[in-house]
Design brief:
With about 55 residues, this protein is α+β, with helices and mostly antiparallel strands. The protein is built from one helix and three strands. The structure holds zinc ion.
Length: about 55
Amino acid sequence: MCTVGGGPSGDLDFDDRVKARKFRCNDCEEEFSHINPDKKPICPNCDSDNVKET
Ligand SMILES: [Zn+2]
């Protein structure tokens, strides 16, 4: 079977994944990626929101 239906929606999902942005914490210098643009990036290491995009 060689079905190509569903290709476009799969591409959309992939696009969302690669939109992750990289941030670095100003408090502990942890580097992490943040995906959800509706949420404030928070350092996973020390829970600080004192971060900047790299
Ligand atoms: Zn931190």
